[in-house]
Each structure stands twice: as C-alpha cells, then as structure tokens.
Amino acid sequence: MLEALSVLFGAVFTVAVCTGLGRLLLGALRLRFRRVEEFLFSFVVGSACLSLIVFGMASIHVARRGTFLLFGFAVLATTILRGAHRLAGEPLPPLPRYWKPLFGALFGVFAYLYFFNAMAPEISPDGSSYHLGLVSRYLHARGFYHIATNMYAYLSQGTEMLFMYAFAFGRHSAAALVHFAFLATLPFAMLAYARRFGFPVAGAVGALLVFLSPVVGIDGSSAYLDVAVACVLFVFFYLLRIWDEERTPALLIPIGLLAGFAYAMKYTAFLALPYALVFIGWKLFRKRQNWVRPLAVVTACALLMILPWVAKNWITLGNPVSPFFNKYFPNPYVHITFEQEYRASMAHWNGVTDYREIPLGATVRGGQLQGVLGPVFLLAPLALLALRRREGRHLLLATLVFGIMYPTNIGTRFLIPCLPFLALSMGLAIENWRAVAPTLVLFHALTSWPSFLKLYCDPYNMRLDKIPVRAALRLVSEKDFLSARLGGYPAARMLDDVTPPDARILCNSSPPEAYTTRETLVGYEGAFNQNLSDLLSAPLIREWQPTRQLTFRFAPRSIRRLRVVQTGSGSLENWSVSELHVFRGDTELTREPQWRLTARPNPWEVQMAFDGNPLTRWRSWQPLFSGMYLEVDFGRLENVDRVIIDATPDQPNVRLVLDGQARSDFLWERLAGEPHEVRTPELANARRLATSEIKWQGVEYVLIGNSDLMAEDIHKNPKDWGLTLIGTRNESSLYRIE
Amino acid sequence: MYPPPVQRLLPSAPEKKAMGGFVNMNDVNVEEYIVGGLQDQTEGDGWRWAHEAPELRFRLDRTEKLKFVLDLGLPEYNFKQTGPVTLSFFINGRLLDKVRYTTPGDRRYEKRVPAGWLKTGEFTLVRVEADPPWIAPTDKVKLGFVLHRAGFIE
User: Fold this and answer.
1) Partner residue facing B3 (CB), from A595, A603, A689
2) Contact B26 A719 (CB under 8 A)
3) Range A125-155 burial, b when 16+ CB lie within 10 A, else e
4) Residue A607 is nearest to which of B4, B40, B45, comparing CB atoms?
5) What range defines the domain where residue B146 resides?
C-alpha cells in the first residue's frame, strides 16, 4: 500500500508543481481567464515550464529526487504565498441541463477504467521500453549523458522530462498517471473551449468522442505521449483563439511556449509554430497592424522550448534532428540506410501497403494499426458539414494541419493529436440534430467499453481489457503482475540477476528496459548495435561472408595514397569491403601506425575494413552512387603492385577501379580497372569470429530470443560460438561470450 | 582520417577432437559419441537429459585396467514422482551392473570393466537402462536421468 501511495504522490506532486508554475507564470503575465480555464491553462502551460526546468536540471546533472522535492515545494509555497492558487475568473456558460449528467457519468465511468490502468504497473510496449527506460537511465545518472546506442534517446523528450519528475517519487506508474492527467484534462479543455465560443453541446459531444475512444484511453493511461501532445496542441489552439478575440499581447508568450513545447514533446508536432506564426501574422496583416513584434515574441518563446533539444542533439550527435535527416547531417550514430528503412516501415506500419485499409483498420479492426478510434469515427466525413460555420473552419484547418504528418506513421495513435479538432467538428456538425448527438455518444461509449470492444476488433488489437484495481493498489505484487502481463519482464529481471552492473547486452528485440538497470543494445536502435547485430547474423548468412576475392594488379608503382573507387549507381544495395590488403610482390604491407584511412560515405567505420577480422566489414550504409571510395594514405611513398579486397557477394552492382597518387598535390591516376575475381571458401570459424569481435567491442553478453535467426544454431552449438548459457527465461536465453 | 585499428587476434576454428574413451556432454564433438536415447541439445553448464535407455559409443586405444565411469543426476522433482530408480549398465551388450538409487541428487557411478569385454579398433557400446523412467505429463516423453559425462578411465 505504501508503494501505491508513493505512486500517487509522484503523480499528484508533479501535476501540482506544473499547475503551480503555470499559475505563477500566467499570474505574472496578468492574464485573466474564465474559472475552469485558469486551472486547465495553468496545468498545461506549467507542464511546459516544468519540462524545460527538468531539462536544465538534467543538463547540469542535478536531476534527482531531493532536488525535485525542494524545487516542487518552493513552487507550491510561492504559489500559495502569492495567492495564485485561488481561482478568480468568471465561470463559463453552463452546459444544457441533461448534458451535464451525461457528460459526468460517462467521464466518470471511463476515468475509473483509465485511472486504475494507469496506476497499475506499466506494461505498454513503448512505455516499458524506451519512454521509461531512458527516464530511468537519466535518473540513475542524475541527468543526460551521451547515449550512442539508442535512437529513441535522440528524439525530443519533453513529456519524458515530466515523467522523470514523477518517476523519481513513484516510478513507472507515477509517470503513466502524469499522462493520465493530460488525458483527463483534454476533454475539459475541449468542453471549456466550446462553452466559451458558444457551442457547448458540440463541445460535450467532441470531448466524449475523444475521451471514450479506445486508442485514446489506452494511450493516455500508459507512459506514452500522444494524448499529452494532443492536449498541449489543443490548449495552444484555444489560446490562439482567445488571442484572436482579445488581442492581449501577453497571450503570445504562453502561445509561443506551447508551440515550442509541442516540438519538444514530439517532432511531428513541430507544425504548431508555423501554424501560430501564419495565423497571427495573417490576422495582424489583414488589419494592417504591426506583426513583427508579436511574431518575434512567439518565435522567441517557442525557440526557448525547442532549442535545448536541437542543441543537445547537435552537440552530442552532430545532427540537430536525429534520428532523422542523417543524409543532410551525416553522423556515426544512425545509418542512412536504416533511417530510410525505418521511415518506410513506419509509413507502412505492420505491412499495411493499401491505405484504403486505414479507415476500417483505425476505427473498427485495429490489429495491424494497433488501436481503434471507435466505429463512430467512420462518420468522420460528417465533420465537413462544420465548414458552414467559422468555428468549424478553424477546427477543420487545425485537423488538417495537425493530421498532415499522419502518413509518416500510420499507427492509429498517431491520429490522436488531430483528433480533438476532428471530434469537435463532428460535434458541430450534429449538435442541432436533437436526438442524434446523445445517441451517438452513447453508442460510442458502448462500443468503446472493453467487454464490448473485444467482440468486434481484431484479437491482437492494442486495447484495455481489465480494470486492475488490486494491481493498481499494489495488493497484487508488482512482480507477479508484470510476470503475468508483460512477456519480456522475466528476461529483464534475469539481466539484473545474472550479469554485473556494467554489463552491456546485445539483443535483437529489447526486453522492457525500464525494468532492468543493464544496458541493452537493441540491434536496430543505433549504428553500433546494428553492426554488432549484423555480425552475429553473418555466420549464418552466406551472402554476408567474404567469399569473393577481388585483385587489382598493376605495374609496380611508388605511391603515397591509394583509393578504391566505386562507380556503380542506381541500385539500393550497399557497397562493403571486408578487408583490404596491399601487396608488394608476395609480401603484404603491414598496416603501419602512420597510415591514415578514410571513406566516402561513412568514414567513421572505415577501420572495419582494416581490422584483420574478415567477418567485419566497412559498409557504405547508403545506396550505391558513383564516387564512393575507400582510401589509404601510407604517410610516405610505398612500392606496391597489387591490392586485394575481400568482399561479400551481396553487392552485384558494385563496380570498382583503383586510383593512386604519388603526392598529395598530384592528380589521382588510374592504377587498375575492374579487378580479377575469384571465389573463396566460407570462413571456417565465422561463429567465433563474430562473437570475439562483439566482445572486443565491449559487449560480453548476447540475449537470444527463440525466434531470432541464429537462435537454433546457438542453442545447439554454443561452444562453436564461444558462448556459455547463463540463464533462460520464457523465450529468451542469455549467453556470455567467453 | 583514422589510423589502422589494433589488428584482431583471430580465434582459430574450434578444434576437432579425436574420438576417444570419454566424453563430456559439452564437448564440441559430443554428437559423435551419441548413438541414441539422449536429448538433442546440451543444457546449462553441460548436461543432457537421458531418455529411458541412452546409448553411447567410444573408441578405446587399449582394454586393460579400465573403469567405466558415469556422472549422473536424479532431479528431486522427478524423483518424487518416480521413487527409487534402478540403472542397468551394459557394455557391448553385457550387463556390467545394476544399481538402485534411493535418493535424488548427483551421483558418480564407477566400476572396473573386464578387459575381455572391451575392444580396440571398433566402437565400444555403452547402454544404460533406467527403470522406472519419469514420464512428462504433457508430451509423455520418458526421461531417465541427467547425464554429465561418461567413459572409460584408468
């Protein structure tokens, strides 16, 4: 029970500090709102402030429970001393009489479902892996540190900063409850907006359509962030509309902060800033008012929230928007080919190639798109009827703008940020059809309730299925609950049980890293991991073994630099070189310390072609283009007459020539054209070569899932791999490299 | 520009051990010794489940003054269900011994083998029969004992 109290304290304290900060800021700006708005805006604007402050604490390595506690109490004390905790605004116009109990009842029932799911131990896939895994690692280190092996650490993490604050007190569930706070705030914000602008019934309909939606429910009761993003975007939109009515200059500050916070929470919400700039600029320009200063204020406030994340990535990774746009900001941490494949897989989530499947998939079936909005959203085209009204046009424009990034990731939950605008538009369209609106809402409530939902959605749809009250109150132990409900949990605990604290574990799919203190290197999550993961597969993939020997022969020459140039193009395959040997007669030149190696592209991994391990290889990690090269500078003139390249057979379109240079100020001259190729046998000890290299790179453990490519071979012949089995849980086996 | 990296000391291919008179279940060439009746893969630190009547083969370079040894385990969980287990040891078809184990745990069986029973130049076959075997409730697989190592020593 004490555990449950710490969970609640972590969440409530975080929400209170957010609200306190918001109250202080909005009070300092002398902004006046309606009564319920004061609370809603304070929480959301304050959450942006707290996120930025936690970022600052993490940057100077003081992110720890004690600091958070002191800071939080200081904020709350200041709020109370200044009387900022008292709500003073006028109330908003009330809801029509019968809507009030309907809204209250449906909100109450679903809030009960969501609250206990949020408070139960975290079992969501992303929440229990990277969202909270990274939070846990940051807290352990008291702040940010250079993580070179996890692309999720490169995304903006504004929401995770709030999670970190709550996690410090109540761990995983406290973080999920903070997200639940956004989930509970959103419908009230929608309702308040509609009441202020004169369409309360549409507001109630829209708010319930969003709040009761199954995908919104499971997302908002997990340590995800989509609902928080939706809430921030909606309040941002709300404040813009108030500014449009009132033109209070101070409003531009919270508008700018929230526009920037949206980016800080999720890259794809970057559109809030251009939306605000165009909206404000257009409104002022039409009235021939000065637009420069207001836009400068919004931009400055937004950049205050955005730049820390940009700077963090630029300084530590060389790419301000990592893990994307690596082609424009090449770096050693994310391979360009990986990014291309990742983008393609997100755009065709779980293999959905026909976008005509999306309407039914995202509303009724859910399986491949992981989550349903609810069948009622099949009526979404009705929202177009809202175009008749000015409010409807505002809302539909926002739907379009915040939904425009959806094709980049077609999972259902990526529709959540634009859902409030769409739902309000639907509400506007039907608010005057007397019996339709409540019927639609009741139908939505019925079809969204877990026991009814499971009757029609796909069996593997992501959804809530129980109300785990006992687990939430910790009357069932967290360990028992997680062991039963979270498949990878036993494997995660095994890592802590049988490996030393500094262990690094290579795996193809991560156990829930939020439940282990060990560093897991998931194959696809970083360039370093990807190289090691490929290496582990190479012994079993003939195409990845160096069974081709390419020989360039030429008349003996005295040269300083050699360059193998690739001239092929138009193919998606990568160029790779397993080993490059330089000969004088029958003698291979020893790789001297003064040699200097480089490559284009991907110079960072060039040493893999010169390390003496034939299984490792330098790869271009980009599709073929003419002009790729691998270069050796001997540091002095060397007599050479032959170059041999060990290569893999998975690159049939690669075309090579050899150039040389006698002095750095001389032109490159062609030493040899197409090389002579002979086939060589497969490596006899490839398995051992792979694991010895992995160990050389500082990784001493591999976690093998039963479905992994190499699982059967390793389980049968661990000795051949130089591996010793040290533990097995469920479908995962942990091996130590000897 | 990068200097050449430290050159890797390449591990050699796993040595193929010549077949002999003794085998550990985690030896690289353990499969060569197994005629049948043993689980397909080695577990943990080097053991395999033996079924009802596992059979192994050995190549001996002499026959004089040799003892047959076998390290085995009778897990408590299975033992509770089977009760005492009797193992019968056969060398080239002749019964060497019959031992009744009345408590669970790890054991070493060891007994001198008459030289006349053994052969050089061809396989020496060892068969062990477990009675009663433990029968898995789900797939009905019969398991006799856990085998760590076996063979002929002085």
Assistant:
1) A595
2) yes
3) bbbbbbbbbbbbbbbeeebbeebebbbbbbb
4) B4
5) 22-153
What's the pTM? 0.83
Mean pLDDT, range A541-562, rounded to an integer? 92
Q: Which residue of B7, B8, B40 is the best one to mutate when testing the A interface, meaning the one whose CB has the most A CBs within 10 A?
A: B8
* CATH code where residue B92 lies: 2.60.120.260
Q: Is A720 in CB contact (< 8 Å) with chain B? A: yes
Report yes or no on B5 lying in a domain: no
Cα separation, A43 vs A261, whole angstroms = 13
A331-A337-A338 Cα angle (round to 5)? 85
Q: Which residue has the tokens 């130089």?
A: A722
What confidence tens digit (pLDDT) does each residue in A587-635 have?
Answer: 999 999 999 999 999 999 999 999 999 999 999 999 999 999 999 999 9
Give pLDDT, residue A546: 93
Q: Which residues contact A738 (CB under 8 A, 6 or more apart)?
A: A722, A723, A724
Asked whether residue B13 is domain-assigned, the answer is no
Contact A444, A402 (CB under 8 A): no
Cβ <8 Å between B7 and A611: yes
State which H helix or E strand residue B66 sits in. strand B66-74
What one-character-per-residue DSSP string does A328-367 give?
A: TS--SSS-HHHHHHHHHHHHTGGG---GGGHHHIIIII-T
CA distance A432 to A439: 13
Radius of gyration of chain B (CA): 19
**pLDDT tier for residue A349 given thresholds of 50, 70 and 90:** confident
Mean pLDDT of chain B: 88
Say if CB A731 and CB A498 are below 8 A apart. no
Residues of B in contact with A560 (CB under 8 A): none
Query: 3-class SS at A128?
Result: helix
For residues A420 and A518, give the distance between their C-alpha atoms in angstroms, rounded to a whole number: 39
Task: Give the ipTM.
Answer: 0.75
* Residue B6 belongs to some domain of the structure: no
Name the token pair of A471.
């687990």
Which of the residue ranges A62-66, A519-523, A557-561, B23-27 would you say has the lowest mean pLDDT?
A: B23-27
pLDDT digits over A295-334, tens only? Answer: 999 999 999 999 999 999 999 999 999 999 999 999 999 9
Residue A369 reports pLDDT greater than 60: yes
CA distance A209 to A35: 24
- List, as ranges, residues 587-606 from A with C-beta within 8 Å of B: 591-598, 603, 606
Q: Which of A655, A676, A666 is nearest to A554 (CA)?
A: A676
Residue A26's pLDDT band, with cuts at 50, 70 and 90, is very high
- In total, how many domains does chain B have? 1
The pLDDT assigned to A137 comes to 96
Cβ of residue A727 closer than 8 Å to a chain B Cβ: no
Dist. CA A222–CA A671, nearest whole Å: 62
Residue B51 in any domain: the answer is yes
Three-class SS state of B124: strand
Q: Rounded CA gap, A457 and A222, in Å?
A: 20
